[in-house]
Write a structure and sequence with these properties.
By secondary structure, the protein is α/β, with parallel strands linked by helices. A five-stranded parallel β-sheet has the order 2-3-4-1-5, sandwiched between helices. A hairpin with a 5-residue loop joins strand 9 and strand 10. The chain folds into three domains: 209 residues, P-loop containing nucleotide triphosphate hydrolases (Rossmann fold, 3-Layer(aba) Sandwich), CATH 3.40.50; 73 residues, Helicase, Ruva Protein, domain 3 (Orthogonal Bundle); 76 residues, Winged helix-like DNA-binding domain superfamily/Winged helix DNA-binding domain (Arc Repressor Mutant, subunit A, Orthogonal Bundle), CATH 1.10.10. It is 53% helix and 10% strand. The structure holds adenosine-5'-diphosphate and magnesium ion (MG). Adenosine-5'-diphosphate (ADP) binds next to helix 2 and helix 11.
Length: 402
């Protein structure tokens, strides 16, 4: 190898859900989840965990890490994702039924304590049939009296109740990992909360582990008032300067490439500690560099390239989905610091009523561009969206008056 930098060795991974080369600054969360796994092994109970934060802070990759840890501990794993698509509710039920079935099949192969496993498997069969209309090959007949009401709340509870003894006997657990949890349909959401609640009361080794926007706790609480006590809520934010620096410099060091101190500082500062931006800028800085040291000039041009990339991809991925009316709404939001404002401020600025604007607001929430920070307020789901929207002002022909 010559001493020129090679793009094919570039370790950085900007992109939604892409595993970062260094998962920096999440030790507290990882240790907490590790404890849950250790307690489960000793047949002690714990709460489920919910990760909260804006888009691009690293919820999905941390959730995946938890899932890997659970897999290594031989938990049964079910992975689902909330969606606002029209057929989303049905699709996620299919996915749930399929994932439970394959988890059940795997459990059947590895479980050392087989007691009551047959019952559990036949409950999974009836669950699949009743909830998703799918008949599954677990080698057992669907249980004619369990998990077959067609009401997901009842059926899921019966299924977990039937599975719990076998899980406990094997010192393991069932984990349902839910990404974009704020977008789960209310029926399935309430079913998961109910079962998590029952699991706590009955010591069933069952965990919902979720990730979602900061509006999620309010959504959960309005589904079930006890939701607040059900989970260990963890808010993920930007990384502090040291952890952000690690995220940038450690992956390079492993490949014998150094960031000059000024270069690392420049990237950390430009990214404001946001993982998505750190990955983007570090990747571009690497590509700009020639020798084995990434210098300040490489960082500066990497950041500029990175910003272009974000303006071509990260932000438009959302902006492009907005209707003209929704864009006007966003432009007005962007005139407030961080886009945070109240719906009454918006109504005033757009010369409309809160009621008329609520369709627009709902549309933008459904498309994942904004969220209700608290009652009567909105904010952008993506860091830096506010300045991006400001930059789009000139391309809008029909601008609202300031
Ligand atoms: N702790 C971290 N340290 C460094 N990079 C991270 C970290 N967490 C996430 N990333 C990177 O940030 C980006 C966004 O991560 P993702 O999990 O998709 O965020 P979210 O689900 O919150 O939108 C990805 O490119 C990922 O590699
Ligand atoms: Mg995500």
């Amino acid at each position: 190898m010559t001493d020129t930098m090679h793009s094919d060795l570039n370790p950085y991974a900007p992109g939604s859900g892409r595993k970062p080369p260094e998962l920096s600054g999440r030790d507290a969360e990882i240790n907490a989840f590790d404890l849950t796994i250790a307690r489960t092994r000793k047949r002690n109970s714990s709460r489920g965990m919910v990760l909260l934060g804006l888009r691009g802070v690293g919820k999905t990759v941390l959730l995946k890490r938890f899932q890997q840890m659970a897999e290594r501990a031989e938990w049964l794993i079910v992975e689902i994702e909330g969606t606002t698509a029209d057929d989303g509710a049905l699709a996620v039920r299919h996915r749930l039924a399929r994932a439970l079935t394959s988890a059940g099949a795997k459990f059947n192969r590895v479980a050392s304590a087989k007691a009551s496993l047959t019952d559990a498997l036949s409950s999974i069969s009836s669950f699949s049939l009743s909830v998703a209309g799918v008949s599954v090959g677990l080698g057992v007949e669907p249980n004619p009296t369990r998990a077959n009401s067609g009401r997901i709340e009842v059926d899921l509870e019966e299924l977990i109740a039937d599975l719990a003894p076998a899980l406990r006997a094997n010192s393991t657990a069932l984990g349902i990992f839910v990404d974009e949890m704020q977008d789960l349909d209310s029926e399935l959401l309430s079913a998961l909360l109910t079962v998590q609640h029952k699991a706590g009361q009955n010591d069933w080794p069952f965990f919902v582990v979720g990730a979602g926007l900061p509006s999620l706790p309010a959504i959960l609480s309005s589904s079930k008032s006890y939701a607040e006590r059900l989970f260990d809520y963890r808010t993920l934010g930007a990384l502090d300067a040291d952890r952000a620096r690690d995220a940038v410099t450690l992956p390079a060091e492993r490949l014998s490439v150094r960031f000059s101190s000024a270069a690392a500082d420049e990237i950390v500062e430009a990214a404001e500690g946001y993982p998505y931006f750190l990955q983007t800028f570090a990747m571009k800085a690497w590509d700009s560099a020639i020798g084995k040291t990434i210098e300040l000039t490489d960082a500066v041009s990497g950041i500029a390239d990175g910003r272009l990339d974000l303006d071509m991809g990260f932000y438009p991925a959302r902006w492009d989905r907005a209707t003209p009316a929704e864009r006007r709404y966003l432009v007005v939001m962007a005139q407030h610091p961080g886009g945070e404002c109240t719906t009454s401020e918006l109504a005033l600025a757009l010369d409309s009523t809160q009621q008329r604007l609520s369709t627009i607001r709902q549309g933008l929430i459904r498309k994942g561009l904004i969220y209700a920070r608290e009652r009567g307020t909105v904010a952008f789901t993506v860091p830096g969206m506010s300045s991006f929207v400001e930059r789009q002002r000139e391309v809008l022909d029909d601008l609202p008056k300031k």
